[in-house]
Amino acid sequence: MRIVIAEDDPLLREGLALLLRAEELDVVATAGTPGEFLVAVDEHAPDVAIVDVRMPPTHTDEGIVAAVEARRRRPGLAVLVLSAYVEQAFATELFSVGAAGLGYLLKERVGRVEEFLAALRRVADGGSVIDPEVVAQLLARNRRPDTALAELSPREREVLGLMAEGLGNTAIAERLFVTDGAVHKHIRSIFAKLQLPPDDRADRRVTAVLRYLDGDQR
C-alpha cells in the first residue's frame, strides 16, 4: 500500500508518517500544501491519499478540492479525508462523486490507532468509511423532513444509522442481535423505499446513508 499524506500541520503530518511506517506501510511522500500533494500524486502514483480538509492558502476547502482533483488524475485512488470538525457540506461534496475508496474521519480518530488503521485499510480495499461521530452530529443537526425516509420503520432507520457508521451486514446483525438474513431483508426494504435500484455507477449503501444524513427531499 503506497500512501501520500497531505497535511499542513507538520507535527501531525510527520506523526502520521511515523505511525504508518511503524505498521510497515509505505509512505512514499508527505505534502504541506494542495499543490505539493498533487505533484506527489503525479510523481509517486500512490494507492491511498490521506488528506486534511482545511489546507493553505485559505484553510477552507482546499483539501477536498485537491482530493477530487487527485481522483480525477488517478482514477481508483483511495482517499481518506481528515477533519478537525464535522462539516456536512464537505462530507456530502466528497461522497457525491462516488463512494468507493473514500473515507471521512475526524482527526481525533487517529489517536485510536486500531480504528484508524482499520478505516485506512477499508478505504484502500475500495470500501467507504464515515466517522461515527460525524454521523451522530449530522443526524443531530438534520431536522428537515424527507417523505421517503419517513416511510422507514424504526428498525430500518436503526439499520441505516449503523450502515452510516460503516458497519457491514454481519456487524449490524451482531449489534442488533438478529440474523444476517434479517439485516439483508431490512436493507432491501430500505433501498426499495428510498427508490434506489441497482446501479453500477453508485454504491446504494452510501447513497442511502447520504440521503439519511442530508435530509434530501427528493
Automatic annotation (TrEMBL):
Alphabetized GO MF terms: DNA binding
Top-rank lineage group of the source organism: Bacteria
Keyword entries, A-Z: DNA-binding, Phosphoprotein, Transcription, Transcription regulation
Keyword NAD belongs to the record: no
GO BP term (any one): phosphorelay signal transduction system
CDD domains, A to Z: LuxR_C_like, REC_NarL-like
A Pfam entry, by short name: Response_reg
Cited InterPro entries: CheY-like_superfamily, NreC/VraR/RcsB-like_REC, Sig_transdc_resp-reg_C-effctor, Sig_transdc_resp-reg_receiver, Tscrpt_reg_LuxR_C, WalR-like
Modified residues (4-aspartylphosphate): D52
Domain HTH luxR-type: 145-216
Phosphoprotein in keyword set: yes
Domain spans labelled Response regulatory: 2-122
PANTHER family reported for this sequence: TRANSCRIPTIONAL REGULATORY PROTEIN NARL-RELATED, TWO-COMPONENT RESPONSE REGULATOR
Protein name per its UniProtKB record: Two-component response regulator receiver
Organism listed in the record: Micromonospora lupini str. Lupac 08
